[in-house]
Amino acid sequence: MAKRKVNLSIHYLGVSPVALVSCIDKQGKPNIITIGAIGFACPKPPILGMAITPRRYSHHLIKESGEFVVNIPSADQVNLARYCGSTSGRDADKFKGAKLTPEPSSRLKTPLIKECPINIECKVRNIVHLGSHDYFFGEIIAVHVEEGIMDKEGNIDPKKLNPLIAFWPGKSEELYWSLGEGAIR
Fold this sequence. Notes:
The protein has about 180 residues and is mainly β. About 15% of the residues lie in helices and about 35% in strands.
């Protein structure tokens, strides 16, 4: 198969899970940021990482509080991801605007999003400045999974979850995809 050299870009990696990351300010007011650059970094201790540009309001909140909750939406929640990714928490209460429920976390001050089928509580372990973005490494300290997306053995069934993923190389209207179903428009 023929290949050609293209401009250097991480966008050629293709896909990444979409997460609605909740965080809090000094007064305990919650916020949500949509993240499309997230992944697991280490199994022991369990650590995940995510890239956030310092221009984002949530960057400062997470850096200051030292904690965040990764909330994994399903594909039918694409409009929540769009709203939380296009509205600034500086100007709006995203929980109210998206009609989401902040539910207390088990080990953090930051709330989880009740409507998301998976919630992962994290404490910031390290922040690495990489250029346009900082990479936040968060140690996973608690995980909550909706029973309806689990199989009989207690594992997450990806078909039942039907996670929302980001697909970068496409046109902007094709940014969000689901597993095996193509673009969500």
